[in-house]
Amino acid sequence: MRALTMASLALLLAACSEAVLPNPPGGEGEPPVEPSGPLVPSEVSWNGISPPVRATPPLPPRVGVADVTYVPAGARGLSEVTSVEVRLRVSGLLGAVSVDAEFLAPGPSVYDKRTVAVEAVPTESRELVFSLPVAGTNIPTHGLSGAWEVRFFVDGAPLTTAGFTLER
């Protein structure tokens, strides 16, 4: 009976012991590694002790910046421009996403839509190039001069816009 009581007492004391963080590799005599970031308790384990779990940091926001380039450089007229290139620098993407570019002609209608599949981690920045052909298309034929707009979407959610002008 006494052995059973001693074993129960030993189990109780073992359950109440405190966890100690290990020393960093190769660092004998150095202080233990301190966890970075706030610690939150996880669910309570069978012995009533909840091990601390690091909180997941929030994801960086999605950011998109678009730059417009005319080909050839300096051209703006319908008869001069061969294409318009829009470079989108985007960051804050998580995993595999779909990036859409909608080219809106002067007026409310979408002239063209392009989609690119991208896979990235939130800390990476990606540059995507969307090209709108002008020469030899309906743009100069139908005289679609004026203010154009490009709208960018990530998995259907609006990201940013850019504008450019094609002159007569």
The whole-angstrom Rg is: 30 Å
CATH arch. level architecture of the domain at 63-166: Sandwich
Mind telling me the CATH superfamily name of the domain at 63-166?
Immunoglobulins
CATH class of the domain at 63-166: Mainly Beta
Uncertain segments are: 18-26
How big a fraction of the residues is strand?
Answer: 35-45%
State the major sheet. Answer: 4 strands, antiparallel
Proportion in helices? 10-25%
**Secondary structure tally: strands:** 9
Question: What is the topology?
Answer:
Elements: H1 2-15, E1 39-41, E2 52-54, E3 63-71, E4 83-91, E5 95-104, E6 110-120, E7 125-133, H2 138-141, E8 146-154, E9 157-166
Antiparallel strand pairs: 1-2, 3-4, 4-7, 5-6, 5-8, 8-9
Describe the fold and architecture.
The protein is mainly β and 168 residues long. It has a domain at 63-166: Immunoglobulins (Immunoglobulin-like). Helices cover 11% and strands 43% of the residues. The chain contains two helices and nine strands. A four-stranded antiparallel β-sheet has the order 6-5-8-9, with no helix packed on it. A hairpin with a 5-residue loop joins strand 5 and strand 6 (110-120). The longest helix is centred in the first third of the chain and has 14 residues, at 2-15. Mean pLDDT is 82; it is low at 18-26.
